[in-house]
Design goal:
It comes from Bradyrhizobium barranii. By secondary structure, this protein is mainly beta. The protein contains three helices and 31 strands. It has one domain: YVTN repeat-like/Quinoprotein amine dehydrogenase (Methylamine Dehydrogenase, Chain H), CATH 2.130.10.10. The protein starts with a helix and ends with a helix.
Length: 415
């Protein structure tokens, strides 16, 4: 591990990274690996830890249709975490949020997954990445900090002259220090705008008039260090992206389709901010790539394949991305130049080395959006949550957690 990495995350964080790596299956490289398929395995019982026969990791099914206890209940069709790039656990991993298909915002114990309590909110809320007690919420003209355990709320901004503020929408996240967010909304003159907001200084940054760009509205999100805002637009059937500074200056225009998308923000090993995701345009179509926000330079990370979503929510485990792969193993086996993964979740280094570790075989068959895997790690990388219908198309979609068998590092990370 380089001295610069120790400098950025501190000794405690570096130790956590090493422990996380020790808990995952042995490192492999893309150039030397072949497709492997999942062994036969019965659906794990609810909240009963089992050992995955293929990875050796512990997996736990943490949702099931019907009442869970403590007033929580899952619908039959699906009951899952919100999204791959959304932080499912709070900062110290004592709470885990199930947001899709549960009767409200359903909070579980972050380590035992026992149901604890539920809340009802219409806001878009995301965990604060440093404060384990609070979530950052956006609705209407309001940006607030909310404490789920007590239901207390602190209003940070009432944006006079704006309406319909959204956190993303759907893919919003704060900067890694929890200080800045990006929101999108409509100004009093009817123009759709985005702007950054600093939750510490309560500073609103200048409006970016994204509504005057070509096409229709997409997602606006802040970068990992809070320096840039990435806004996507649908233009003539293409999902394009525009990169701005928080001051509102246009830095990059990525006019290729989804190059990349379905991804997440990160800090590269050289300290530069990147977006990691899946390209859907030439010359790297269907490859996993990273793209620098400051100059648009692209680096291919994994060959063409069936990667569907990328997550860098393990903010204390820098330099890695969690990838969810779909596809049919029988079809991928006939395509030797494709990435050798199907119905898997893996961890991949973002330095271009091709080093990866297998995390889970999902045994998930395609059906609809809600049955997509959406693998997402805990902040320290010791747990990964993912969804699966366990081989039954149209059957219930459950959430599972793969535990990477690293010891409790909450105290180390808080030093």
């Amino acid at each position: 591990m380089s001295p610069s990495l120790y400098t950025r995350i501190g000794l405690a964080g570096a130790v956590a990274v090493v422990l996380a790596l020790a808990g995952i299956a042995a490192a492999q490289t893309l150039a030397k690996t072949k497709l492997t398929t999942a062994s036969s395995m019965n659906l794990p019982d609810y909240l009963v830890p089992v050992t995955d026969p293929d990875t050796g990791a512990t997996i736990v099914r943490i949702t099931t249709p019907g009442p869970l206890g403590a007033g929580l209940a899952c619908q039959r069709a699906y009951c899952t975490h919100r999204y791959s790039s959304a932080q499912a656990w709070n900062a110290d991993q004592t709470l885990l949020l199930i947001a899709n298909g549960c009767n409200g915002l359903c909070f579980l114990d972050g380590r035992t997954y026992v149901p604890l309590f539920r809340r009802q909110r219409e806001d878009e809320c995301e965990w604060h990445p440093r404060d384990p007690e609070r979530m950052i919420c956006v609705i209407g003209r309001k940006i607030s900090l909310w404490t789920p355990r007590t239901n207390a709320e602190e209003i940070m901004l009432m944006a006079e002259g704006y309406r319909g503020l959204q956190f993303g929408p759907g893919k919003g996240n704060p900067s890694q220090d929890g200080r800045r967010i990006a929101v999108r909304g409509t100004r009093a003159d009817g123009v759709v705008v985005a702007f950054a907001f600093d939750l510490v200084s309560r500073q609103k940054f200048p409006d970016i008039e994204v509504g005057k760009l070509p096409g229709r509205d997409g997602v606006c999100e802040i970068s990992a260090l809070g320096s840039y805002i990435r806004c996507s637009r649908w233009v003539d059937g293409k999902d394009e992206a525009f990169i701005y500074t928080v001051a509102g200056d246009l830095v990059q225009s990525w006019t290729e389709h989804h190059r990349p998308s379905h991804g997440d923000m990160a800090v590269d090993t050289d300290g530069r901010e990147v977006y990691v995701g899946i390209s859907k345009a030439d010359p790297d179509i269907y490859q996993v790539i990273k793209r620098r926000l400051d100059d648009g330079v692209v680096t291919a990370l994994a060959p063409r394949g069936e990667a569907s979503h990328a997550s860098t929510r393990a903010i204390h485990w820098p330099g890695w991305v969690i990838l969810s792969y779909g596809g049919d193993p029988a079809e991928i086996a006939q395509l030797p130049k494709f990435a050798p993964f199907a119905r898997e979740v893996i961890a991949l280094r973002i330095d271009g080395s091709g080093e990866f570790r297998r995390i889970a075989y999902t045994r998930n068959v395609p059906h609809d959006y809600w049955s997509e895997t959406h693998g997402s790690p805990s902040p320290d990388g010791s747990q990964v949550i993912w969804s699966s219908n366990w081989g039954v198309a149209g059957g219930p979609v459950f959430d599972f957690v793969t535990r990477l068998d690293a010891p409790d590092r909450t105290s180390a990370l808080s030093r």
